[in-house]
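Re: that chain you flagged

S.,

Sorry for the slow reply, it's been a week of failed gels. I finally had a moment to sit down with the sequence you sent. For the record, here it is as I used it:
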Amino acid sequence: MAVEAHPAHQEDAEFIPVVKTGIFIYLILLLSALAWVYYEFGDQLLQVIDDVWFLGGVGVFGAIIANSTGTGGGVVFIPAFIAIDGLARMGELSSSL
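Prediction finished late last night. Pasting the structure tokens below so you have them in one place:
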């Protein structure tokens, strides 16, 4: 006995295969990009990851601050980039102001 979708949910039932196809295509593109990066920069990749591993945490923290207050992400990102680079560039400061 086949189970059919309720008429009110028919649009949702038709939408699910499109979402699954989109996720599959996204994963294929992501894996292709990662394979290309590893092929091109495999010997340097671990060194780069070792240098910038903490930027993911800075990004998450900056997004939380920016979205929970009206200050924006520059309050977190500019000091973090100054600490990384050692010196602020005028473009970074002017966009933060």
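What I noticed first: The mean pLDDT is 73.

Talk soon,
D.
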